[in-house]
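Sample entry (343 residues):
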Amino acid sequence: MKKIIALLLAVVMVFGLAACGGEGEAAADNNAEGKTYKVAFILNCSISDGGWGTACYSELVAAVERNENWEMAYTDNLAQDGYYDAMVAYCNEGFDLIYAPGGEYTDAVLQVAAEYPDVAFAQLNGGEDTPAAAVNGNVTSLLPNGQQIGWIAGALAGLMTETGTVAFIGGMELTTTLAKYEGFVEAAKYVGEKEGKSITALDAVYANSYDDSAKGIEFANAMMEQGADVFFGDASAIDSGARQAIDEKNKAAGSIKVFDIAQPADYLGQNECIIGSQVTDNSSLIELSFRAVEDGTFGGEVLYGNLENGVLSTGALNDLVPQEIKDKYLAYIEEMIAGTFMQ
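Predicted structure, serialized as tokens:
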């Protein structure tokens, strides 16, 4: 009888311990689910520049709004010598993820990532080799396909140019910007040839800045003097300056004959000269970073964005684009998605 009672007591104790363990695990799970994560955004231009800065900020806001367990802070208008200090300040404040939108932040990202191994660093347009260079494996590159970005704009430029001359304005001569320029040129020339046009692409110009709109005005005026009638840029506020110059040129001429293709968001309507946009949904790449931080799997990889997975797309087209050209353009986009463009 004593053996039976002892056995029953042992069973009760086992189940009791199991129940306690279950409650502890559930509590741990609930704590994990209830954790608030923090992402810090640093930027060398303004979030209200109407271009790159605005788009990157808006995409991060959208990602945070879709993920209620994340909150954000940002510092914009940073000079290059301020990148390091801004990131260090956020690391010391306990932020989980630092988001830097551009290849120009690479040196600072790698330096801070080496000093703060428990913080994750996501770099938009980071190099393919950047994650491997991070000594703590806590850096991930978010890399939209630069060639396809250029294709999206170049195909429309090749269809719409009347002078046969197209132009590209860059902020800095980065690898990703060069890829966009090269894709823009090859697509414009390919599509132009299909349309019986001989396309000339002016040499790309670089402002070595993202906030000097006066440079954009200067560049655009000089390139229009050389006959350029379709522009594409990768220069944030410099792009805004270029559009201002184009709008003024069109106003003086009494009609809209010089066009601009915007990026990385749909900016149709922002300026009269914008006929379309190349759109990059960086928020989807940011959300993949969120998931990896939450799962403890972040770092050491490149997350790619392209037409095939929907990260890249086209924006709305201006009514200045004839329906016949719209149809041709969208057919070229389908070829890009199918992998048959320029084949």
